[in-house]
Amino acid sequence: MYTITILTDNNTITDRYFLGEPALSILIETETKKILFDTGYSDVFLKNASKLNKDLRKLDFIVLSHGHNDHTGGLQYIIDLLKNENHKPEIVACKGVFCQRYDDIDGDFGCPVEKKQIESVFNTKYIKEPYFITENVVFLGEIPRNNDFEAKHPVGVLKDTNTPDFVMDDSALAIKTEKGIILITGCSHCGIVNICEYAKQVCKTDKIHSIIGGLHLQDAAENQVNKTVDYLKSIDLETLFACHCTGFQAQCQLNSSVNLKEAGSGLEIRF
Question: What is the pTM of this model?
């Protein structure tokens, strides 16, 4: 059994009184492992985890979906939490996750913790090919961008090279189950359709059971939103927990085509 808990999201579950922020952090618990997927922007994920009686001192892995500060900002708080612990989780991410980024509106929005500080505390794996964290949980690594409607516009600029940033470090987790793949996404900068197609290839199955996370459709072109909705309808999803950067208008379109479920800080999902 898998327990998947949204520790941080833009929204919160009504009448549960958790904290929210424009960020994402998700805890995945298998029978033997605890995996933290992203750390949000601040210590909100720790406060919500405490309220849920989730002990993040016992993590086995920290998986980073990509290097933006709303997914990596909480790393400093994890470092502080674990400073007196002998056990340290392994960090898994794509190469480039700690590159610095900026744009003229938001300024710097890369990881606020220096790479050398993180590497002095954690064993960090930079993954290109799919990496199986457990027998059935795989970090997808660099995801091929094969269609003509996703990942076509940069998100700011890479500071070191002053070149457009297409967030090539963006990735996702796939969980293989008897009912199909459960996908955990951060922002889906590489495109949720690209993610689904690659996950099916890696996991050797055509069935995507559920998706949990951000789809980055809030400012997407109408063509991308329409093709994404059509694709997700065509694959017969069991459930879609679209949150964080998906966007209200896209959620409205998705709701008419797939089994869209409410998501937010404090939500626990069991498979």
Answer: 0.97
